[in-house]
Amino acid sequence: MTDTDHSSSAPAPESATPASALASAQAGSERSRSRGPVLAVVLLVLLALVLAGALYYQNRQYRVMRADLQQQHAQSVQLVQETRAQAGQALALIQEQAARLDELKGALDATSAQLQELDQALQMMTDSGSDLLLLNDIDHLVTIAQQQLALGGNVANAIISLEAAQAQLARANRPGLAALQQSINGDLDRLRAVATIDMTALSARVDRLSDLVGTAPLLVPDAAAKHPVDQPAASPAAQASSAHPTPAAAPEGWRAAADEAWQWARDAAGLVSQDLRSLFDVRRVDDAAALLMSPDQALRFREVLKQRAVTAQLALMMRQSRIWRAELDQLSQAIDQRYDMRAESSREALRIARELRDTPIEVALPTVANSLSAIAAARDAAAEEDAQDDGMPGDSGPDLPPAVQSPVAAPAAGSV
User: Fold this and answer.
1) Nearest residue to 378 via CA among 405, 325, 416, 351
2) Segments of the chain scoring below 70 in pLDDT
3) b/e for 325-342, b at 16 or more Cβ within 10 A?
4) What is the pTM of this model?
5) pLDDT (tens digit, 9 = 90+) per residue, 227-248?
């Protein structure tokens, strides 16, 4: 019963619900239709506001950009004006420098022209003028060669001076000075044939001699000797062992005892003989004082010999042959008398000292007297020719001495 009632009463509300829903839908549709124009107007207003704002922002950006462009244009105009002013200054400076260069070029051309004129005038005066000018130059060069030979014995510099004089005579090409040129050629040949002394090699040998006299052993041993004469002798036991090697198989019995006794006796005899030999040293010495020097005296003796070597080296540089021979002779005698000739260094020092003593350091150098005489003769001949030319008929004025007649001869005579 209950189930039947519920089933019959349920459909009534379901039928009422569609009617209310339809009414509410119609009302909503009417409201939406009335709101559509309002929304459209609102959207149009918002769009207009957005467009107006965008237009205002764009206009403002344009004004700012225009102001920047105007400022940049003004700066560019100012920079162009400054650059134009600097370019004008640079152009003016370049024009001024060009003007100065033109002036310097003109001055250089004028100087070159004057130099050429002076060169031509000097050439004409040298070629066609008096020979005294040329003789003065040759005399100056030959005098320099003579001074080099007389003062320092420098043959190379003397040859250079004579070669310069010879070249100047060859350029002048004066037939009247052929005799002078032959004299200079002869002096040059004699100077080139001179045997020169190797100063460097001799000085090096003197240094080697000084080192040897400082280290070679004396007859009396001292602390300065670095090279012992004899090697230290081996011990008697070592000598005996080397002379009599140990047999591979030693004998036995009484023979072994006899061999040991014989070996012991031989070793003892060797020790005694060595001690006796060390007590006596037989030498043949010419100077007995050489064996009585103390170590201090030996040191001073070596220093004295080194000073003699230095003196010999100075004599070599100054070409003092007497001092050279005397010092090396003293060194040879001292080495022969006081040094132990059993050492190789002592024998080398003695050999070097004797070879240096026999080496001549003073070579007879030729002179350029022939060239000087030829120059004097040529100057006298040129002076006579000038005097004859000045004393020819037709000259105005009285005869004058050669020193006054020739204006070039006076300085030439003064230079001599």
Assistant:
1) 416
2) 1-23, 25-34, 123-130, 152, 195, 222-253, 274-293, 386, 389-416
3) bbbbebbbebbbebbbee
4) 0.41
5) 444 444 444 444 444 444 444 4
Query: Which tokens belong to 1?
Result: 């019963």
pLDDT at 191: 86
| pLDDT in the model for residue 240 | 45
